[in-house]
Specification:
The chain has 209 residues and is an alpha/beta fold. The chain contains eight helices and eight strands; from the N terminus they run ααβαβαβαβαβαβαββ. Helix content is 35%, strand content 16%. The strands form two sheets. Strands 5-4-3-6-7-8 form a six-stranded parallel β-sheet, with helices on both faces.
Length: 209
């Protein structure tokens, strides 16, 4: 289990399908002998919401093959470029507005640092920060890569020095694991499960700091 209605920012909660999702989850938790979770943070969310008993839950982590991800591309430069990437979906629970805030502030100090937003979609949708991102792209503060194929995304990660995460719903997610595999330094919020696999000096508590 990598997500559920016991998370405030789960997709089902955000789209008004909480009740439907809870019936499904409760049936799983009632009839399955064991329920596997991607992180301790997620497991405790389910337990605190009284959706399951402690004895049924097991933390397994994320099934992630770093060797396959690394070898997807034959491009591994020895030197990184001054690139900061936002590796998540452009959705509310990922808080892209914080990435834009950081980009604006640092661009004013050092305009040579590139801030890149990537998406497999043809546009940015679903958040109020979409218009702001497009405006900042016109100003040269951020660069948005639309409809980006996976190999091209991995090449950007191979070039980037930093990936920045402000996500409120991420349980040992693929995006961060892919970034780390391709040599990026993660800078992430400490509000979700990142503290389970990242040292404290890679976590931020207040983005203004």
């Amino acid at each position: 289990n990598l997500a559920g209605t016991f998370e405030n920012y789960d997709f089902l909660n955000l789209t008004g399908m909480t009740s439907w999702g809870q019936y499904l989850e409760k049936s799983w938790f009632a009839f399955c002998k064991k329920v596997f979770f991607g992180s301790e943070t997620l497991r405790m969310m389910a337990i605190r919401n009284r959706m399951m008993t402690v004895g049924k839950s097991v933390v397994t982590g994320l099934a992630f093959n770093s060797e396959d991800v690394y070898n997807t591309i034959d491009y591994h430069p020895k030197e990184k470029k001054d690139i900061v990437m936002f590796p998540h979906r452009w959705d509310t629970e990922k808080r892209p507005e914080i990435f834009l805030k950081v980009a604006k502030k640092i661009h004013g100090i050092n305009p040579n640092i590139k801030f890149i937003i990537t998406t497999g979609r043809k546009d940015l949708r679903g958040t109020a920060s979409m218009d702001e991102a497009l405006r900042l792209q016109k100003q040269g503060v951020v660069d948005i890569k639309f409809a980006l194929p996976k190999p091209e995304y991995y090449k950007l990660l191979a070039n980037a020095k930093i990936v920045f995460s402000s996500a409120l719903q991420d349980t040992v997610g693929n995006a961060m694991m892919e970034s780390i595999t391709h040599g990026c330094t993660p800078v992430a919020t400490d509000e979700v499960s990142y503290h389970e696999y990242l040292p404290q000096n890679f976590l931020w508590h207040n983005v203004d700091e």
